[in-house]
C-alpha cells in the first residue's frame, strides 16, 4: 500500500469511529409520542404559583383567591418570590421570572406549577430553563394563552401538561366559571375528562384517536422554526386566539401550513376565537369559514366550538394525552383516555 493510500485509510477509520462517537454525543433527543404523566395531586400536596409572563399589577386579590381555592381543596400554595415584581411589561426581569419558574421545576416538594397569568413574556425565558431535576421529579404545568410556549416545551421534554385556568381567571362570583373550576379540579386530581361540544354547520365530520397538542395560535406560530416548535404528525391540534384580525389568523395558518404543520395531523379542534378585531377592509367570511378554507387541502375532522380559551368557560385539557375525537354536525365529543 502506498503512503498516500495508507494515510487515506487511516483518515477514513478516524472519521468513521470519531464521527460515530460525535453523532452519538451531539444528536438531538428523539421526540416521542409516549409522554410521562406526572403524579396527580392529592391532599397535602404543594402547588407553586409563578408569573412567567406579564405583570400582575393590581392582581394581588386574584392570587389570594387562588391560594384560598387551593386550600379549600386540601392543597398547599407557595407564591414565587417575584410574582408581584415589575419590569416594564413583565412580572419582573427575565432572570427573575426564570428564577421563580426554575425553583418550581427543581423543588421536589412541588407537585404542580400554576401560572398566575399569561400576557406576553414566556418566550423570553424558555432557553434559560433547565429540566434536569424536573425529569427526575415530573410535575404538572397549568395555564393557557402565552403559557402555550411552555406547554410546547414540556411536550418536547416528554411530559404531559394541563391547559386550564390561571389565577387571574378567578372572579368574585365563582358561579360564573363553574365549569372552568370543576374541570380544572378534575384534571389535577386525576378524574376522567370528557366533553360534549355544541355542533356547528362548519364542522368537518369524522373520527380520530391521537394525542392532543397545541394552544394559543399566535404562540404556536411564534415557535415555528425553533426547538420549541411541536411535531404535530399523528396528533390532534387544538387552537384558540384572542384580539386578532382575521387576516392575521389566516396568515398564521398559512405559515403553519407551509411549514408542514398539518401534513400528517389527525384532526383540529378550534376553541374560542375571542374579541376578533375588525379591519377597515373586511375579510368577507366567518372565522369558521376562514379556517376551513385554510385547511381545505386536508381530510381530517375539524371541530368548532370547543369551550376553551379566553372566555369564562375554559375547560381543562391534558396536553399530550390521547383523546377520542368524534365530530358531527349536531355535536362533537372529546374523551380523554385515562
- CATH architecture level-2 label of the largest domain: 3-Layer(aba) Sandwich
Query: And the CATH topology of the largest domain?
Result: Rossmann fold
Structurally, how many domains make up the residues? 2
Instruction: Tell me the series of helices and strands, N- to C-terminal.
Output: HEHEHEHEHEHEEHEHEHEEEE
Q: Supply the helix-strand structural class.
A: alpha/beta
Helix content bin: 25-40%
CATH class of the largest domain: Alpha Beta
Mean pLDDT: 92
Shape estimate: globular
Major sheet summary line: 7 strands, mixed
How many E-type strands? 13
End-to-end separation: 66 Å
Uncertain segments: 2-32
What strand order characterises the main sheet? Answer: 6-13-12-7-8-9-10
> Rounded to an integer, what's the Rg over CA atoms?
22 Å
CATH superfamily of the largest domain: Murein tetrapeptidase LD-carboxypeptidase, N-terminal domain
In DSSP terms, counting alpha (H) and pi (I) runs of 4 or more, how many helices?
A: 9
Q: What portion of the residues fall into strands of 2 or more residues?
A: 15-25%
3D structure, described in words:
This protein is an alpha/beta fold and 338 residues long. The protein folds into two domains: 46-189, 3-Layer(aba) Sandwich (Rossmann fold); 194-336, Glucose Oxidase, domain 1 (3-Layer(bba) Sandwich), CATH 3.50.30. It is 31% helix and 21% strand. It has nine helices and 13 strands. The chain has helices at residues 3-26, 60-72, 94-106, 132-136, 148-157, 178-189, 217-223, 246-258, 287-294, and strands at residues 46-50, 76-79, 110-115, 140-143, 161-163, 194-198, 206-216, 236-242, 267-274, 302-303, 317-319, 322-327, 331-336. A seven-stranded mixed β-sheet has the order 6-13-12-7-8-9-10. Strand 9 (267-274), helix 9 and strand 10 (302-303) form a beta-alpha-beta unit. The chain is globular. The termini are far apart.
Amino acid at each position: 500500500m502506498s503512503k498516500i493510500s495508507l494515510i487515506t485509510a487511516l483518515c477514513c477509520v478516524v472519521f468513521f469511529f470519531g464521527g460515530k462517537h460525535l453523532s452519538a454525543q451531539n444528536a438531538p433527543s428523539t421526540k416521542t409520542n409516549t409522554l410521562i404523566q406526572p403524579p396527580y395531586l392529592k391532599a397535602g400536596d404543594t402547588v407553586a404559583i409563578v408569573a412567567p409572563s406579564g405583570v400582575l399589577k393590581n392582581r394581588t386579590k386574584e392570587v389570594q383567591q387562588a391560594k384560598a381555592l387551593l386550600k379549600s381543596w386540601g392543597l398547599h400554595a407557595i407564591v414565587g418570590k417575584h410574582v408581584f415584581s415589575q419590569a416594564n411589561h413583565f412580572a419582573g426581569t427575565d432572570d427573575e421570572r426564570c428564577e421563580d419558574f426554575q425553583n418550581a421545576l427543581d423543588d421536589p416538594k412541588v407537585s404542580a406549577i400554576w401560572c398566575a397569568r399569561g400576557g406576553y413574556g414566556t418566550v423570553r425565558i424558555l432557553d434559560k430553563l433547565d429540566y434536569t431535576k424536573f425529569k427526575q421529579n415530573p410535575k404538572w404545568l397549568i395555564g393557557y394563552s402565552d403559557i402555550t410556549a411552555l406547554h410546547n416545551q414540556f411536550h418536547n421534554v416528554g411530559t404531559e401538561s394541563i391547559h386550564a385556568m390561571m389565577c387571574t381567571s378567578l372572579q368574585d362570583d365563582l358561579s360564573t366559571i363553574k365549569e372552568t373550576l370543576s374541570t380544572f379540579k378534575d384534571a389535577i386530581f386525576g378524574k376522567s375528562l370528557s366533553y360534549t361540544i355544541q355542533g356547528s354547520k362548519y364542522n368537518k365530520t369524522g373520527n380520530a384517536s391521537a394525542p392532543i397538542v397545541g394552544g394559543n395560535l399566535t404562540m404556536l406560530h411564534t415557535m415555528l422554526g425553533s426547538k420549541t416548535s411541536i411535531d404535530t404528525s399523528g396528533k390532534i391540534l387544538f387552537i384558540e386566539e384572542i384580539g386578532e384580525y382575521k387576516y392575521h389568523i389566516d396568515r398564521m395558518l398559512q405559515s403553519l401550513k407551509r411549514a408542514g404543520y398539518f401534513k400528517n395531523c389527525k384532526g383540529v379542534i378550534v376553541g374560542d376565537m375571542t374579541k376578533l378585531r375588525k379591519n377597515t377592509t373586511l375579510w368577507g367570511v366567518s372565522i369558521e369559514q376562514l379556517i376551513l378554507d385554510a385547511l381545505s387541502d386536508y381530510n381530517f375532522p375539524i371541530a368548532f366550538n370547543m369551550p376553551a380559551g379566553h372566555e369564562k368557560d375554559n375547560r381543562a385539557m391534558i396536553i399530550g394525552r390521547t383523546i377520542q375525537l368524534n365530530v358531527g354536525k349536531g355535536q362533537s365529543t372529546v374523551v380523554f383516555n385515562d
